[in-house]
Write a sequence for this structure.
């Protein structure tokens, strides 16, 4: 079980009982579905709901950070057929918060989606769940069955005039479906190749109908926002960065796991919550927002607070809040090779620059890592990334390019060493020891 | 005409029907991902006739179903062993031993990625991010069961469990 | 309208236009690969990236909708840098095999690489290799060259109507392919070759036979169906080596059917007749033209003198040119014969003398795309008129409702609003029901003859669809025109259109189905029509361009009658064993590619063309041969010096459209009899067997559409006969043939479908008949 520690727990309040606390009974016991009941009973208008969400300045938790209330307000009012879609296709290396949300508190997402359906006028919703977490998909289906049986889903919910149903759709191994239009294509039973935008999903979404699509954590926050009021929620964080946020901390820390902290918490505090550096080793670098975010050297990240604005100022992205911590045992060339392989493997193949460029990047980085680098390779990587960025339908090409650029920028000397000496700057034995794999007993957190 | 999908069992078709029911009546194709998983569970992998059968059942062009089956990487277009082990070797997992875990399994089973043991019991695959980086090293058994913190003794235990 | 600026030039464009469309309006070229005006926007190749003022990134011109005041720069540094970047990516995995690539010289990638590519590649990793695919006999693949623009995939799904190709796998490993083991079988597959911007999909029959710059080009017109698709014939050393579409939005748009594209192979068939031949004492001799013409004139004059002109019959192919038909009928009439016909597959001639003009499409071809309600009656539409089916497919996607009344429920790959599938003998009464139902819905008094008719649910559904729109069209197909109650179908279809206030017309079986009427290649008041000429044997026949055993409604009867005639004069580009058996003289005439001439298409448009190649051997244009025969037979008015002279005389000038087009019909007594006992034959004319030229095109003959005829029946009929699908059956009317039984769920009870125009089924006789079927 993933470790949990929080400052002012909100989204994670329901996680305390771990796998024993996910059911409807537990959720209701901690005040679950009260907000849905209140919305329906008090006849809050959809605009009232959207207004409250706007006040909270809840920014989309999937990575792009777009204000949720604003997104909802884009939905055309008159359209007869609309959809609400939840993006639980969590496959960005480093990110694993939505899995725990659905595992420990699926009903908060269900309640959030129903309320969203009410706010935007949709009658049908889907939660798209990453294929690799099939057990979580099954749990979510079980939670849906409970909600349906209790009358929270279906026709005329709780005796109101509002009808809404919700289903789970699982992926089966494609990172690109985390891109919202790729996800919609995938629900339609196609390859998850992203669509050119505009039109945006709010006008042309699932089955060509207006669709609101948000991240799991975003939906999970909705009942809490309605419960405490938008303004109170905003004030949990900092201006323009409302509320709390889940951070998935992975890599070389003593207690990898999800941590809910208020927006604006210093990185150092988050690292402390995660148990500090594994084996007391020196921090080398951090990827603060999932693998697509530029890597930041230790000295830069240690000065950051964890919110959209601070991380952006430091030259990276908060993204989905996936914090990958790397210590001094890491060879940055090898680390980049893993990431470049990932984007090469996950490019959907649609746009020329990404289809061709992601493989080119991987091959060059692979060569350098394997002692076949050439003096001109760093310029070449720069040129290829330059040619890829900003020229494709979705952001995967940029996501493939950004790590290459940031790794070679911040750790240039390490790459140059590799090219010149045909080997790692970091001793292979030190690297081997760094993973902790060969000292099983020292790994903490294993349930 | 003969149903091309009579090769799928009534149980499988029943499960597919439950998936179809999730979507609007004119959007049967939405169920193709789930249907291919159901078919793969039944057949062990996805022979082309099976893909064609699923396509026919959902009223899709066979190549449209093949596009899906070949796009998502957990569909098996080649036969696999009784236990398909997929090890995540992505960066966050690698930082905590993902690559070492894969090497360990390779050495234990005497096979490389994309190979099957001669007894047909194990197939080893390299996986991409499974969204469980906090539990690294992570492995999937037959796509649906996730195993966390797969250090040597855990791997030994898992391999022993797989009869 | 929106005001925008492209490269500093101001222009007004319609709301909703894309940048590439706006640029096109200005004549500004934006490089692109995946964009095609007839296909959905994919925006995947990224070649068309341009700079848009205030946009931080380059935008794809194909997918970016213009907004008022937008300023676009197609050649700015940002734009060109982006375009060059994309070109570099396109080339890194593209093979450097231009010298051996058939696309060389007409390759978009090659052309654009000149402007946007670097002289050397910076990519030094291993290049991708993609296995080739077997797409069938027409389209050759070299998939390593594919740039994944997906035009081909979108074509099959959107234009041809069924997704036969897809892009499997992902990322760098993505590859275009059909489903495993499948070929591409659409009747429009050749268009993939035109659409492919690189050498991944090329013409299999043309492969490695010439470089594009070695070919001469001539405009021409398709000699096949009534559409009259515009062609470019490409020749080398007076041999047609390739046929491409000549874009004409009013007719074929930018498409061709495979028949139109690949039938040219028949032009080079070993069965071409290259020297005049006469039969002397049962022996065939190749002779000089003068001998052959003298022989012919002598034989015809002899019969006319001895038995009278009426002892001569003229069977003219509806694929013959206007000029040929005109001179042929003039010659026959000069000899005193009124037995002239080009309607060789027609059964019911009772409308003759009752038509108010030349039957035609009843509208412009382009107008078909504007109909919002369509009823297609008696048509194997997708195979008989593939490009009209394509137009209706697009209409249906835009919301038009298409319904069908027919004797077979072939998949048209069009979403149908309603359908009624009935045995051939039931079609008239079904159509009558529709007329009645529409009349009732419209509150109009129906024809008294329809009083006793009960309206079926199918007819009611079709009627309801038809009355729900504002621009209906009723289109009669080849099957309706070949029907034994064709005049009734004509009269009812016309009535239906009148009640609906909509259009009505005939799809047109052949290239000159309208032209034949215009030049009066039809029997005079005292003459015999095509069927009667064969029913009542003549002493002599003049056969122009036809193979009566395959091209007539009753091929067996045609063969028997011709075999007994004293003199059969055949003017044909081809020879066959049947001809050698029944003919007395074979005059080698030019196919359409080797003569000038005209076809009048279904909409009445006169389309003239020149020869693209010299006649093969001693073949000569048929109009010249007929002109000389006219002189030899001393028939007046055979002084033409050119085919243009002939056309001017035939049409009374040089009109763009012929005069006298009118589908009006008067005095036909409706024949609604439906009492047929036994298994009714449903006879289609398979797409690759419809005329002498396509029958001799080898690659087309290997296509799936060229499969040998089977005896197709629905499950109930098979069960009733105790026959299993796949079993050999004896099918017979007069003679019997042995065929494989095949299950066809789309056929009505009590029918058996056996294709006509095929050597394997000629012995069955009439296309419209009752057959017996039993286990062989």
């Amino acid at each position: 079980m993933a470790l949990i520690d929080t400052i002012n727990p909100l989204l994670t309040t329901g996680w305390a009982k771990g796998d024993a606390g996910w059911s409807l009974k537990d959720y209701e016991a901690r005040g679950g579905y009260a907000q849905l009941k209140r919305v329906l009973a008090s006849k809050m208008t959809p605009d009232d709901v959207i207004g409250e969400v706007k006040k909270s300045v809840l920014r989309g938790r999937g990575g792009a950070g777009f204000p949720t209330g604003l997104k909802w307000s884009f939905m055309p009012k008159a359209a007869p057929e609309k959809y609400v879609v939840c993006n639980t296709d969590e496959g960005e290396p480093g990110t694993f918060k939505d899995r725990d949300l659905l595992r420990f508190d699926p009903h908060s997402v269900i309640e959030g989606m129903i309320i969203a359906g009410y706010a935007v006028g949709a009658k049908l919703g889907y939660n798209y769940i990453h294929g690799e977490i099939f057990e979580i998909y099954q749990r979510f289906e079980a939670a849906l069955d409970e909600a349906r049986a209790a009358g929270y889903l279906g026709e005329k919910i709780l005796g109101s005039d509002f009808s809404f149903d919700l289903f789970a759709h699982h992926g089966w191994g494609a990172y690109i479906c985390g891109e919202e239009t790729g996800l919609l294509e995938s629900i339609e039973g196609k390859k998850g190749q992203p669509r050119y935008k505009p039109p945006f999903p709010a006008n042309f979404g699932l089955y060509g109908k207006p669709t609101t699509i948000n991240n799991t954590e975003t939906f999970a926050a909705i009942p809490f926002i309605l419960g405490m009021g938008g303004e109170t929620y905003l004030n949990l964080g900092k201006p323009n960065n409302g509320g709390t946020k889940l951070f998935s901390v992975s890599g070389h820390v003593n207690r990898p796991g999800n941590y809910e902290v208020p927006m604006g918490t210093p990185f150092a505090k988050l690292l402390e919550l995660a148990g500090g550096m594994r084996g007391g080793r020196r921090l080398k670098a951090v990827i603060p927002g999932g693998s697509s975010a530029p890597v930041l050297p230790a000295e830069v990240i240690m000065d950051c607070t964890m919110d959209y604005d601070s991380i952006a100022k430091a030259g990276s992205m908060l993204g989905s809040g996936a914090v990958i911590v790397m210590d001094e045992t890491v060879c940055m060339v090898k680390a980049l090779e893993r990431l470049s392989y990932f984007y090469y493997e996950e490019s959907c193949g649609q746009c020329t620059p990404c289809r061709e460029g992601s493989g080119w990047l991987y091959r060059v980085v692979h060569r350098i890592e394997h002692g076949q680098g050439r003096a001109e390779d760093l310029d070449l990587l720069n040129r290829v990334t330059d040619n890829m960025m900003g020229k494709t339908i979705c952001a995967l090409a940029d996501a493939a390019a950004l790590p290459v650029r940031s790794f070679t920028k911040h750790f240039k000397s390490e790459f140059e060493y590799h090219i010149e000496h045909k080997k790692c700057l970091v001793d292979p034995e030190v690297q081997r020891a760094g993973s902790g794999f060969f000292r099983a007993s020292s790994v903490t957190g294993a349930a | 005409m003969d149903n091309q999908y009579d090769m799928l069992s009534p149980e499988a078709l029943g499960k597919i029907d439950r998936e179809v029911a999730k979507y609007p009546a004119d959007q049967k194709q939405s169920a193709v991902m789930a249907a291919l998983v159901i078919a793969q569970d039944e057949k062990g992998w996805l022979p082309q006739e099976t893909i064609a059968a699923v396509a026919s059942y959902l009223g899709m062009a066979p190549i449209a179903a093949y596009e899906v089956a070949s796009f998502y990487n957990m569909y098996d277009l080649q036969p696999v062993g009784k236990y398909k082990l997929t090890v995540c070797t992505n960066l966050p997992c690698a930082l905590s031993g993902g690559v070492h875990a894969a090497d360990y399994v390779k050495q234990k089973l005497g096979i490389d990625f994309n190979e099957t043991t001669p007894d047909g019991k194990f197939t080893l695959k390299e996986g991409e991010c499974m969204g469980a980086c906090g539990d690294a090293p992570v492995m999937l058994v037959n796509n649906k069961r996730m195993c966390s913190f797969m250090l040597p003794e855990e791997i030994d235990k898992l391999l022993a469990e797989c009869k | 309208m929106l005001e925008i600026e492209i490269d500093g030039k101001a222009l007004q464009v319609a709301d909703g236009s894309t940048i590439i469309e706006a640029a096109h309006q200005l004549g500004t070229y934006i490089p692109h690969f995946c964009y095609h005006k007839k296909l959905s926007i994919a925006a995947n190749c990224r070649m068309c990236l341009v700079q848009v003022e205030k946009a931080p990134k380059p935008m794809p011109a194909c997918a970016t909708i213009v907004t008022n005041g937008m300023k676009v720069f197609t050649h700015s540094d940002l734009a060109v840098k982006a375009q060059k970047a994309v070109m570099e990516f396109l080339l890194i995995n593209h093979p450097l095999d231009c010298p051996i690539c058939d696309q060389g010289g007409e390759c978009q990638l090659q052309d654009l690489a000149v402007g946007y590519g670097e002289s050397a590649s910076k990519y030094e990793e291993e290049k991708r290799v993609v296995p080739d695919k077997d797409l069938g006999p027409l389209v050759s693949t070299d998939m390593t060259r594919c740039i994944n623009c997906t035009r081909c995939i979108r074509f099959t799904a959107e234009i041809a109507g069924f997704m036969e190709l897809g892009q499997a796998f992902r990322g760098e490993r993505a590859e275009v392919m059909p489903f495993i083991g499948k070929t591409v079988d659409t009747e429009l597959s050749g268009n993939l070759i035109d659409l492919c911007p690189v050498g991944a999909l090329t013409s299999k029959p043309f492969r490695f036979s010439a470089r594009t710059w070695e070919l001469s080009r001539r405009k021409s017109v398709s000699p096949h169906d009534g559409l009259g698709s515009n062609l470019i014939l490409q020749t080398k050393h007076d041999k047609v080596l390739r046929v491409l579409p000549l874009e004409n939005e009013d007719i074929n748009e930018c498409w061709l059917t495979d028949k139109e594209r690949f039938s040219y192979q028949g032009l080079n068939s070993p069965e071409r007749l290259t020297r005049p031949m006469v039969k002397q004492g049962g022996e065939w001799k190749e002779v000089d033209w003068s001998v052959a013409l003298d022989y012919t004139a002598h034989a015809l004059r002899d019969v006319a003198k001895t038995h009278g002109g009426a002892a001569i019959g003229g069977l003219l192919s509806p694929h013959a040119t206007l000029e040929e038909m005109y001179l042929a009928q003039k010659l026959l009439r000069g000899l005193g014969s009124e037995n002239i016909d080009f309607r060789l597959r027609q059964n019911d001639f009772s409308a003759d003398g009752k038509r108010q003009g030349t039957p035609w499409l009843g509208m412009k071809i382009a107008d078909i795309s504007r109909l919002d309600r369509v009823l297609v009656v008696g048509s194997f539409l997708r195979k008989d008129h593939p490009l009209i089916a394509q137009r209706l497919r697009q209409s249906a996607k835009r919301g038009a409702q298409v319904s069908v009344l027919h004797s077979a429920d072939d998949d048209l790959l069009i979403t149908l609003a309603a359908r009624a599938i009935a045995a051939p003998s039931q079609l008239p009464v079904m159509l009558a029901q529709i007329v009645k139902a529409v009349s009732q819905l419209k509150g109009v008094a129906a024809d008294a003859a329809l009083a006793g008719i009960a309206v079926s649910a199918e007819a009611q559904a079709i009627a309801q669809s038809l009355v729900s729109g504002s621009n209906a069209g009723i289109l009669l197909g080849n099957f309706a025109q070949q029907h034994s109650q064709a005049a009734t179908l004509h009269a009812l279809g016309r009535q239906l259109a009148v009640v609906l206030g909509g259009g009505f017309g005939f799809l047109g079986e052949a290239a000159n189905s309208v032209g034949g009427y215009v030049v009066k290649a039809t029997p005079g008041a005292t003459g015999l029509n095509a069927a009667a000429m064969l029913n009542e044997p003549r002493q002599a026949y003049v056969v122009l361009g036809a193979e009566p055993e395959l091209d007539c409604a009753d091929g067996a009867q045609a063969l028997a009658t011709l075999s007994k005639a004293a003199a059969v004069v055949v003017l044909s580009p081809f020879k066959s064993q049947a001809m050698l058996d029944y003919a007395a003289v074979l005059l080698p005439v030019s196919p359409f590619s080797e003569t000038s001439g005209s076809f009048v298409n279904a909409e009445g448009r006169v389309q003239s063309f020149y020869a693209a190649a010299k006649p093969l051997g001693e073949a000569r244009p048929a109009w010249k041969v007929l002109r000389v025969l006219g002189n030899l037979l001393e028939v007046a008015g055979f002084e033409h010096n050119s085919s243009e002279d002939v056309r001017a005389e035939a049409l009374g000038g040089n009109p763009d459209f012929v005069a006298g087009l009118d589908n009006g019909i008067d005095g036909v007594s409706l024949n609604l009899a439906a009492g047929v006992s036994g298994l009714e034959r449903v006879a289609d004319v398979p797409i690759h067997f419809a005329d002498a030229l396509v029958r001799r095109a080898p690659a087309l003959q290997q296509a799936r559409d060229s499969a040998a005829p089977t005896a197709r029946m629905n499950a109930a009929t098979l069960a009733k006969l105790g026959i299993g699908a796949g079993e050999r059956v004896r099918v017979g009317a007069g003679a019997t043939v042995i065929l494989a039984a095949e299950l066809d769920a789309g056929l009505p009870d009590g029918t058996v479908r056996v294709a006509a125009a095929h050597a394997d089924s000629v012995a069955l006789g009439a296309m419209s008949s009752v057959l017996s079927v039993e286990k062989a």
About this structure: The CA atoms of residues 304 and 310 of chain A lie 6 Å apart. Residues 440-447 of chain A have pLDDT under 50 and may be disordered. Residues 352-369 of chain A form the longest helix (18 residues). DSSP finds 19 helices and twelve strands in chain A.
